[in-house]
């Protein structure tokens, strides 16, 4: 399972520092960013793929409840607040959990386990890519093209489309990079940037900033760097 990418939104810096500390203790969480501004949070959600937002409620510009309505279905939300009276409304917004400040690490961990279980439940084994191939939709009704996994060099996100780059050609299909990532999460592919997933099999070389695949230089994003090089080191002699 890929790591859960987290954004922290709270107008109180001490609350942000506490959550950053808690997130750093959990191996399956990745801290992407923190902000005291709900409006900045909206921008970050449009720039990065975020799986989970820790969201305060009483904030200037937008309340956490208002922000949650805007980002509904875009990401999972755990509310973190000192106000118990909003709990019912938060669950009506399909929040994963409602953490009442001050909360201990044990309560925090209980909440994120719910996210982990939901993520695992949303990726049943029968929906994973097979060991050797999958089919993608192309132009025209009932037009599909078979893609052999061992021929994929890298996959590029293009807003509502993805480009699957093979050794000698590319296939464009209407899909999202996040969905493709979920299909490939247990195979030898790794996300190196918000726009790129690469095949470990076809990597020629790397440096601190780039990975070279089939003659193409791709950037390595800071968010993905640690996980990427961990996978590289797993295969180091």
How would you explain this protein's 3D organization?
31% of the residues lie in helices and 32% in strands. It contains 7 helices and 15 strands. It has 2 domains: 4-121, Rossmann fold (3-Layer(aba) Sandwich); 127-234, LytTr DNA-binding domain (OB fold (Dihydrolipoamide Acetyltransferase, E2P), Beta Barrel). β4 (76-81), α4 (87-92) and β5 (97-100) form a beta-alpha-beta unit. The strands form 4 sheets. It has a 5-stranded parallel beta sheet with strand order 2-1-3-4-5, sandwiched between helices. Strands 10-9-8-12-11 form a 5-stranded antiparallel beta sheet. Strands 13-14-15 form a 3-stranded antiparallel beta sheet, with no helix packed on it. It has helices at residues 13-24, 38-47, 64-70, 87-92, 105-121, 177-184, 222-234; strands at 4-9, 29-35, 52-55, 76-81, 97-100, 133-137, 144-148, 152-158, 161-166, 170-174, 189-193, 196-199, 203-206, 210-213, 216-219.
Describe the largest sheet.
5 strands, parallel
Strand order, biggest sheet?
2-1-3-4-5
- CATH-level-4 superfamily name of the largest domain: Response regulator
Order of helices and strands: EHEHEHEHEHEEEEEHEEEEEH
CATH topology group of the largest domain:
Rossmann fold
Please state the average pLDDT score: 87
Radius of gyration, rounded? 19 Å
Helix segment tally: 7
Approximate shape: globular
C-alpha end-to-end distance:
25 Å
CATH class of the largest domain: Alpha Beta
In total, the number of strands is: 15
Please name the CATH architecture of the largest domain.
3-Layer(aba) Sandwich
The residue fraction in helices comes out at 25-40%
> Would you tell me the structural class of the helices and strands?
alpha/beta
């Amino acid at each position: 399972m890929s790591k859960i990418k987290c954004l922290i939104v709270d107008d109180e810096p001490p609350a942000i520092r506490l959550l950053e500390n808690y997130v750093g203790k959990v191996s399956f969480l990745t801290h992407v960013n923190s902000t005291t501004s709900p409006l900045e949070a909206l921008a970050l959600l449009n720039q990065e793929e975020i799986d989970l937002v820790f969201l305060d409620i009483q904030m200037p510009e937008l309340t956490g409840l208002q922000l949650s309505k805007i980002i509904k279905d875009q990401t999972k939300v755990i509310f973190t607040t000192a106000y118990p009276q909003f709990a019912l409304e938060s669950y009506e917004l399909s929040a994963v959990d409602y953490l009442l400040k001050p909360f201990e690490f044990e309560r925090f961990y209980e909440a994120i386990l719910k996210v982990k279980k939901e993520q695992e439940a949303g990726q049943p084994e029968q929906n994973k890519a097979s060991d050797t191939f999958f089919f993608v939709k192309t132009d025209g009704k009932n037009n599909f093209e078979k893609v052999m996994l061992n021929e994929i060099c890298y996959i590029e996100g293009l807003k509502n489309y993805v480009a699957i780059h093979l050794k000698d050609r590319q296939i464009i299909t209407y899909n999202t990079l996040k969905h493709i990532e979920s299909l490939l999460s247990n195979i030898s592919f790794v996300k190196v940037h918000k726009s790129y997933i690469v095949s470990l099999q076809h990597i020629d070389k790397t440096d601190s900033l780039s990975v070279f695949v089939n003659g193409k230089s791709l950037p390595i994003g800071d968010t993905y760097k640690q996980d990427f090089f961990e996978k590289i080191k797993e295969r180091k002699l």
